[in-house]
Amino acid sequence: MAEPAPHSDDARRRALPSLATLVCVAGLLVIAYAEPEVRVLALATLAAAACAWLVQRGARASRRRKAAKTVLPSPLWPNASVKSVVDAMREPAFVLDRNLALRFSNTVGIQTFGNMVLGDPIAMRFRAPELIAAMAESIESGEAQMTEYAERAPSERAWAVDILPMPMPGEPQPLFFLALFRDRTQMRRIERIRTDFVANASHELRTPLASLSGFIETLKGPARDDAKARAQFLDIMQEQARRMSRLIDDLLSLSRVEMRRRLEPNELTDLASVLRVVAQQAAPTAAEKGLALDLVGLEEDALVNGDHDELVQVFGNLAENAMKYGDGGGRIEIGLLRTEETVDAFVRDFGQGIAPEHVPRLTERFYRVEDGSGRVRGTGLGLSIVRNVLIRHNTRLSIASIPGEGSTFSVRFRRRISGDFGKTVMKQRDRVS
Ligand code: ADP
């Protein structure tokens, strides 16, 4: 609908009183001094002017009444068809009027944020000044706004909120607004994990790097001519350099397995042969530490769906940990436990064990249990790599530990027979990962 230009309307309104006064004065002068016929003419002109003024006043009042009506939202809106569109949305959506009162809430909105009374101010449920300010801004400007909203209780959730004016035919300005909430919780969580990861990785690399620079400074300065100190420092520096290179290897390994974790392996692997390779690799360290290495149930094969090299890496990490953290127990077991359908591969130590509060967190990246010595023995990435490889194998790590008695790390696989392979691949393709 075309609106009269506001400037010309204003100018006309301002000019009108002076024009009316001028006409009245002229009319009165004519009535007072002019000939009778002219007086009649003047009286008629004045009456006509008065009539025109009254008509114009009536028209202005009706325009004002119409304008006032446009800012009063209709109580019948939103109508059934608008409601059904808003209700079909898969994210919480609310229709608000110009007073920021709730006019309609879709089913997902009620499920997510609870029931709200229609007609109540939306600020009663969303006590977030930024969100309310964005809504008010959209009402004032008549334009779409976007903002964010976060809730901590009952659970931590983050939302992107679009406030969209809903134009209606015949109305010069939008009377209703759609507040559309889009869940961003998962995205924020991934962003946070990524930032934490970068911060942790840099911190882990910075520590040995700082130690290396410190020793280089000392060797260039005070310890320049001290042959004994030099030899000692060089040993420490070598250890720090090894730690950095281990960390980089683990980081690369982790990123490789994370990239592949949605691709299930499609080959048959013998778990017994995997564990025999692991035992062979562990034997020199076990001998060095005086640990007995007992192999259980590895005489017969145990076919599973799996990537041989990745499984060697998984059980190699577990065996390494058993020798590193469970060395007080004097022996380690590596073996298989079979049932008709499944086979459990396990690595068991008889060392210090793990306090129960740490167990659920062991597979987190960089998580290490402080042993009180202040010594950093690993990168804290080993079990995270294990976890990711096992996700790809559609199984997971179980940890059972009794402080003072030792720990068992085991993984359950579904058993296969060699003729199974074709069927297995078919089944995997059908499954949604
Ligand atoms: P790291 O490279 O530090 O060994 P892991 O992810 O392999 O990292 O292990 C995480 C932490 O779990 C270790 O720092 C250690 O505190 C604990 N841990 C792992 N295996 C054992 C075990 N067999 N016995 C006791 N503690 C263990």
Explained architecture:
With 433 residues, the chain is an alpha+beta fold. The chain has 4 domains: 9-70; 80-183, PAS domain (Beta-Lactamase); 188-259, Helix Hairpins (Orthogonal Bundle); 268-432, Heat Shock Protein 90. Helix content is 51%, strand content 18%. It is built from 11 helices and 12 strands. Strands 2-1-5-4-3 form a 5-stranded antiparallel beta sheet, sandwiched between helices. Helix 6 packs antiparallel against helix 7. It starts with 5 loop residues before the first helix and ends with a helix. It binds adenosine-5'-diphosphate. Adenosine-5'-diphosphate is lined by residues 317, 321-322, 325-326, 349, 351, 354, 362, 367-369, 378-384, 407. Adenosine-5'-diphosphate (ADP) binds next to helix 9 and helix 10.
Quick structural summary:
By secondary structure, the protein is α+β, with helices and mostly antiparallel strands.
